[in-house]
Fold this protein.
Amino acid sequence: MKKMLLLALASLLLLLTGCAFGLKQPPKTIRQAFDSQFPGASHVEWERVMSTYKAEFYHDGHEKEAQFDKDGTWRRTKTELSFLDIPAPVMKAAQEYCDWEIDDILLFEQADGVPAYYQIEYDREHSDREKQLLLFPDGSVFTRL
């Protein structure tokens, strides 16, 4: 009886492991679209999110996240940046917004017609509060959150 139970558990574990690995690999059309848009990307990890596929990876010295539709159409890319990577007008506007410490700088590029924008995230020492500022590349404010 114990052998049957162990065999059943082992089979279930193998099945679940196989399914997990299968879900991590996107269809060929998505992989081809990704390789075309991000040649040389490394440490690529895939995840299926609803009807889209999300890749987390390194490309051109940055950590990135890209989403593709099930037909391989690119939807958006989020890139983590440093202070050295952002245009001077964005840095100036970000520093003038508030005196909190800048915690993260993200660049969002989208296929739906929204122009590229920067998301600046601020933290305050000894506080759980955060602020966000969305800026266009020319430093104009997209929105404050």
Observations:
- Residues 2-144 form a domain with the Nuclear Transport Factor 2; Chain: A, fold (CATH 3.10.450.360).
- Residues 1-22 have pLDDT under 50 and may be disordered.
- Helices lie at 2-24, 28-37, 88-97.
